[in-house]
Design brief:
The structure is a single chain. The chain is an alpha/beta fold. Helix content is 36%, strand content 15%. It has a five-stranded mixed β-sheet with strand order 3-2-1-4-5, with helices on one face. The longest helix is centred in the N-terminal third of the chain and has 25 residues.
């Protein structure tokens, strides 16, 4: 035992702070991540009011593709040129808030035709569009 370390056996009287520090760091990270979400929900501000303010609602274009390939815009039958002209006029009428498009297609319409309408709408400046669906028919079609 010459030069060797001697061990004392007995009760450990010190507190091991390593697990405590680990837990505190995890809690700190959780609070940092959730604080921004809590702040967004908690901060209430009152915006200034103006007497001449008006809200501009974006125009909604209802485009329908029927099973036989017929195009309709807002319930009126049209062709590709008429659809293009109507979309251009709607975009030109209010360039700050471009119109929205709601596209409804019969399930028997070819996929390429629907993609063509989507491409036409996007190319003419409509940035927001939705495809109308029937929620009752959200089952997969039968395999061929």
């Amino acid at each position: 035992m010459a030069g060797g370390a001697t061990r004392r056996r007995g009760i450990i009287a010190e507190i091991n702070v390593t697990p405590l520090v680990d837990i505190m760091l995890v809690l700190l990270i959780i609070f940092m991540l959730t604080a921004q979400l809590i702040m967004r929900q908690a901060i209430q501000i009152e915006l200034p009011k103006a007497t001449q303010a008006s809200t501009i609602k974006p125009t909604t274009l209802a485009i329908m593709l029927e099973a036989d390939g017929t195009l309709s815009l807002d319930g009126k039958k049209t062709n590709a040129a008429g659809l293009r002209t109507a979309i251009q006029q709607a975009v030109a009428a209010n360039p700050q808030t471009p119109p929205q498009a709601l596209i409804a297609a019969d399930k028997r319409v070819a996929h390429g035709r629907v993609v063509w309408v989507l491409d036409l709408v996007k190319s003419l400046g409509v940035t927001q569009f939705a495809i109308e669906i029937d929620p009752a028919e959200l089952v997969a079609p039968p395999e061929p």
